[in-house]
Design goal:
- The chain is of the alpha/beta class.
- It is built from 12 helices and 10 strands.
- It has helices at residues 3-13, 38-50, 62-65, 68-85, 101-114, 128-135, 153-156, 166-174, 195-201, 219-226, 239-242, 250-269; strands at residues 17-20, 56-58, 90-97, 119-122, 141-147, 160-161, 164-165, 183-187, 207-209, 233-237.
- Helix 2 links the parallel strand 1 and strand 2 (56-58).
- Helix 2 packs across helix 12 and helix 5 packs parallel to helix 6.
- The longest helix is centred in the C-terminal third of the chain and has 20 residues, at 250-269.
């Protein structure tokens, strides 16, 4: 997928919603536990109920790896279902990988080639040779952790390195890497006041924004400071949508929550 195709979907659906598929067997409806693959059945129902309201889905791979081989197979079935039924949707493997070059090459192959995700999240700490293997894939995207939404982000990311904060150094340095046009960035919604400065460094890049809803981030504030002329935002919501109900009406309630966000986004797009 290209960013032009992603923007086309945003215009068509009047939405820049990304739905996080973070499946915890302790939280999903009990009746699904009797099925052969509860994780996939849950995901399938959520996707079927919301695919017209969101432009992206983001499974956090930890929620699948925690269940061993069965969990990985559920992840594979989920991405295959998305690619087959809804190829227009932008898919994100939220894996937060990043290692020495040959290891990163294998991580990149696993998520971008074998599983065929459109993108994967990557940690920048090990630098250029740990990220460029991901950037080498045509029409695939590397979503670099820039300024995250968690409390511990202030431990390192906002510390000054010389004249600027570390996250700004990450943003500026990443633009010098080969195939940097294939970069997107994670910027937490709980850091809305930072978006203006971030846009000065990466004005045209898409930003994946977690932290709206359960973590207290404001969609309106993020859009005010972070939106560009091609929108340039993917706003992620996970728990607030997929766990809106733990009853048999879970998919219907998830749709209701996704619709609320889509309608708010439609107003902001105007």
């Amino acid at each position: 997928m290209t960013t032009a195709q992603l923007y086309e979907q945003i215009q068509k659906k009047k939405s820049f919603l990304c739905i996080g598929l973070d499946v915890d067997l302790n939280k999903i409806p009990q009746h699904l536990l009797a099925t052969e693959d509860p994780i996939f059945e849950f995901n399938k129902a959520i996707i079927d109920a919301t695919h017209d309201l969101g432009v992206s889905y983001k499974p956090n791979t930890a929620f699948y790896e925690a269940y061993g081989l069965k969990g990985w197979l559920s992840l594979e079935k989920t991405i295959n279902y998305l690619n087959h039924k809804h190829p227009e949707v932008f898919t994100i493997a939220d894996a937060k990988r990043g290692d020495i070059g040959n290891t990163s090459s294998m991580y990149a192959k696993a998520f971008l080639e074998d599983l065929n995700f459109d993108s994967v999240t990557v940690a920048p700490y090990m630098g250029k040779d740990s990220v460029e293997p991901f950037l080498a894939f045509k029409d695939k995207f590397t979503i670099l952790l820039a300024l995250t939404s968690n409390e511990g982000a202030f431990d390192f990311q906002t510390k000054h390195t010389g004249d600027e904060e570390l996250y700004k150094t990450v943003l500026k340095t990443s633009k010098t890497w080969k195939n940097s046009e294939n970069l997107m960035y994670v910027v937490g919604a709980t850091k809305a006041e930072y978006f203006t400065g971030i846009r000065q460094i990466v004005p045209d890049s898409f930003l994946l924004v977690p932290g709206v809803g359960a973590q207290g981030g404001s969609l309106k504030e993020v859009c005010k400071y972070g939106m560009n002329d091609k929108v340039g935002l993917l706003i992620n919501s996970s728990r607030g949508i997929i766990y809106a109900s733990n009853g048999e009406d879970f998919a219907e309630k998830a749709r209701e929550e996704a619709l609320k966000m889509q309608q708010e986004m439609e107003l902001l797009l105007k």
